[in-house]
Amino acid sequence: MGGMRKPNGPAFQQKCDALRGVKTFDIFSWQPHGWPEPHPCVIISNPSRVANKPDVEVVLCSSKRAGREPDAAEMLLDEADGLDWPTICKCDLIHAVRKSDLHHRRGMVTAARRGLLIRKIIAAHAWGEILAAG
Predict the structure, then answer these.
(1) DSSP state, 131?
(2) What is the rounded average pLDDT for all residues in the chain?
(3) Pick from 102, 129, 103: which is nearest to 45 by CA?
(4) What is the pTM of this model?
(5) Among 76-80, 94-98, 129-133, which is the least confidently predicted range?
(6) CA trace torsion 98, 46, 128, 60 (10° rounding)
(7) How far apart are the C-alpha atoms of 129 and 69, rounded to whole Å?
(8) SS in 3 state form for 38-55?
(9) Range in 3-17, 29-43, 50-64, 70-84 the model is least confident about
(10) How would you class 78 by CB atoms within 10 Å of its CB: exposed for 0-12, middle for 13-18, buried for 19 or more?
């Protein structure tokens, strides 16, 4: 019949194994459409979404070693988080990504930095001002 074949083989199984147990604050590699190389990204979605939905929200990090201090809408992640070197994470743009497009689990944001990451995202979007006005 003309039905779609299910992917199989070692590469597919490896991909399935990598995405099993994906969690909020995990760091993966993701290559946005049209970009020449993958970049680290941090999953920031609610844990329920991460566990049950095909799409998650991420913030993107630089693929290059940080050569400057992060600005107000950025933060530094590094080897403690599983990255190869100090890397700037851009907190002012949230991307929706298919979990199946995430590759190579790189690490996880340390517990000590998770609150700072969330505060940076809130500040970068001026959501704190909106909450304070309400």
Answers:
(1) H
(2) 88
(3) 102
(4) 0.84
(5) 129-133
(6) -30
(7) 25
(8) CEEEEECCCHHHHHHCCE
(9) 3-17
(10) middle
Match 């940076």 to its residue by tokens.
120
Token pair of 117 as six digits: 């990451």
Structure tokens at 92: 């002012």
CA distance 40 to 34: 16
Looking only at the bridges linking them, the beta strands covering 39-43 and 74-77 are unpaired
Token pair in block for residue 96: 């929706």
At the second CATH level, the architecture of 21-133 is Roll (2.30)
The neighbour count for residue 69, using CB atoms within 10 Å, is 8
pLDDT at position 19 over 70:
no
Q: How far apart are CA 49 and CA 24, in angstroms?
A: 9
